[in-house]
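Q: I'm writing a short methods note and want an example of a predicted protein-small molecule complex. Could you take the sequence and the SMILES for S-adenosylmethionine and return the bound structure as tokens? Please keep the output block clean; save any remarks for afterwards.
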Amino acid sequence: MADLSPVRRLMKLVHPEGIPWPGSVLYNALSSSTIFMRHYELAAEDILSHCSQGTLLDIGTGPARLLLKLHQQSPGMRLVGIDSSAAMITQAKQNVAQAGLSEFIEVKEGSASSIPFPDQSFDIVVSTVSMHHWKQPEVCLNEIYRVLKDNSFALIYDIVSDTPKSTWNEIKREFGRLKATMFWLHSFEEPFYTRQNFEAIAQSSLFGKGRTQSFGLFCCLILKK
Ligand SMILES: C[S@@+](CC[C@H](N)C(=O)[O-])C[C@H]1O[C@@H](n2cnc3c(N)ncnc32)[C@H](O)[C@@H]1O
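A: Understood, no commentary inside the block.
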């Protein structure tokens, strides 16, 4: 495990990994706001610049809004989402059905620490704002490595605790202080990692290394198998 503070270790021990009901309902509502949608858009653009065909897995898919965005931009891709919270999968299924996309987007319950798919199933694996919830991030990255095809990318987006102040100020100017704070609330149950933690976790996984890049408030851990 990367070098974490004692508070961080304690939080990891005591709180549940998946977001249960009614948090799932609240998060579903929040995730349709402009600040979230802008970040799904930024992530989707970046993802499709790495891989725009084949099969994609989104881990900790939550309400599946990233998958819906990806389908709009690349309708030929097969899109799959898993989430360890059954309540969140209910929200995801509702959103996918409301968009009339149930035949194109598959969402099911499953954990990053034991991904319910065979080895080398995916052309790309992605995740947004979920890694800071994972109790054993290295184990999860090893699972991602297992289900990823050779020469393929995993892109793990999250918010980092050392986001520069200038980035926060830009986001506050663009979306307003209230929405920026809503986004930061992701860290309420589980504190965020630093950029350095990200790289250390990648180093202790089967990927061996990873580099980071910023997109709005997202920091992306870029991993290549
Ligand atoms: C803050 S939400 C983000 C949801 C979505 N990716 C988004 O960007 O809106 C984090 C999600 O990760 C899920 N999660 C947490 N730990 C997980 C794990 N080990 N495996 C799969 N999903 C997990 C939670 O249930 C929750 O739905």
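A: Remarks, as requested: The longest strand covers residues 148-158. The chain has a mean pLDDT of 92.
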